[in-house]
């Protein structure tokens, strides 16, 4: 009898917990709405209800990010070289906030401990017969997944960003050539291209925008171009910046340099598209063998198989 009551007791506790959590959430959001109305009366400005309801979620997210940052400060690397290396990888992935490195390190620590602890909790509650060695192995594997999983995600994000930059670069170079040959200086041309490509090439536009801000802040053109190449970690853009630095140092025509490099980039993009097209038959072979051919075999040979089975059954009946 006691064993039968335990599930009901657990269900009751779960129901009460969800009910209390719902009441607490409603009260919290109601308090946010009241504070928004009070702020509206005091300031005399209209406050959107959606913004007032989203404010608690934003505060909770900000609190979680601050917690990850404090944790990352404690468990992250202390060497300056390692910190700069990690910060550079985050910048190459498009994460430019000042505390992104600490937040990323804290997130890895929370994921590692959380996954390992969840596995051990599941083992204690639902798999008590599991051996200690197997439990330790599973905890270590999940902890490694929590620590190295974000690193794998960051590497994939960097690769995707480089590919997007390589696709956006030829069109931006063509526009840069037109601007330079029309009489603009290189700095003004970069600013113009940044403005014109903010929708068609947002990633390269943001990098050019940062390059423009660095030039306006007083950094030399060579240093700003080297910083651009370091942020993007793209070989084509690195070669372009080297050519621009050499052209600026030796007095070579920048317009002619950009035109030659733009033609080479356009050819390279066409070759990359042809390479992808050539790989398509090989990539389609696996789904063709696994999914399409078995379906065709079932459709074509299925009726013949059914007829053979019926014929054998009739032969056995006689």
From TrEMBL:
Transmembrane segment boundaries: 6-31, 106-126, 132-154, 282-306
Every Type II secretion system protein GspF domain range: 173-301
Main location: membrane
InterPro entries: T2SS_GspF_dom (IPR018076)
Membrane topology: Multi-pass membrane protein
UniProt keyword list: Cell membrane, Membrane, Transmembrane, Transmembrane helix
GO CC, any one term: plasma membrane
Location relative to the cell: Cell membrane
Top-level taxon of the source organism: Bacteria
PANTHER family for this protein: INTEGRAL MEMBRANE PROTEIN-RELATED, PILUS ASSEMBLE PROTEIN
The name this protein goes by in its record: Bacterial type II secretion system protein F domain protein
